């Protein structure tokens, strides 16, 4: 009987706690008392045009039905990639690590309006085929060039200027990609690195380089555990 009463009290306490937590508005009670306020959330992206609506629908379908094993960026990171790309008016984005094309299609949302194009690299033939199909159904295939093969070799064929580089493949390779691609990035261009989370891991040399060179300005955004390093090549 006593055990039953204890269990009942515990369940009641958990339910009460859940209610209080859910009832807090962003910046509510806690914010007013000077403690950390709950972060604001942006809500879902709102399509401005029918074309944008179609692309967002494909992205959502990929998130719900294809994401397993694809190592896609979270939607918020995709939105950030789109926002930065559109903000710098990018004409040429280079991505390393296409997978099934999820982040690539976020870039395309921006490139449709800037009149730009994406070159994206993938070593895995099965993923590359899936990406091609996704580009086609999102209606962005004409602004994407998918290069199949080892990006460490393939990037040597690229020509500048590049406005945005997105690194999202083999982490230990980021330093090599930086050395090969930075000369092609235009002044004022961006190098974005996904999974920038630990200075001691496989990205050590890359992170050292982007935080110690005077011609670069780097910040790390941690909207998720993965983190994105945002590096500006100064003018
Ligand atoms: C984290 S996934 C990319 C996810 C993708 N950016 C997205 O968010 O939808 C990394 C991809 O990089 C590819 N990759 C790994 N090493 C590579 C290399 N040397 N050259 C080209 N692609 C590579 C993998 O096959 C994998 O599909």
Question: What's a concise summary of this model?
Answer:
44% of the residues lie in helices and 19% in strands. The chain has 235 residues and is of the alpha/beta class.
Strand content: 15-25%
Strand order of the largest sheet: 3-2-1-4-5-7-6
Content-based structural category: alpha/beta
Q: What is the number of helical segments per DSSP (H or I, 4+ residues)?
A: 9
CATH superfamily of the largest domain: Vaccinia Virus protein VP39
Rounded average pLDDT: 88
Say which molecules are bound, naming each kind only once: S-adenosylmethionine
- Known CATH architecture of the largest domain: 3-Layer(aba) Sandwich
- How many beta strands in the DSSP annotation? 7
Radius of gyration: 21 Å
Any key phrases for this structure?
single chain, about 240 residues, alpha/beta, Rossmann fold, 2 domains, seven-stranded mixed sheet, 9 helices, about 45% helix, about 20% strand, disordered N terminus, binds S-adenosylmethionine
Overview of the molecule:
With 235 residues, this protein is of the alpha/beta class. Helices cover 44% and strands 19% of the residues. The protein folds into 2 domains: 2-32; 50-233, Rossmann fold, CATH 3.40.50. It has a 7-stranded mixed β-sheet, with helices on both faces. Helix 3 (50-65) runs antiparallel to helix 5. It is globular, with a radius of gyration of 21 Å. The protein binds S-adenosylmethionine (SAM). The site of S-adenosylmethionine has 19 residues, from helix 5, strand 2 and helix 7.
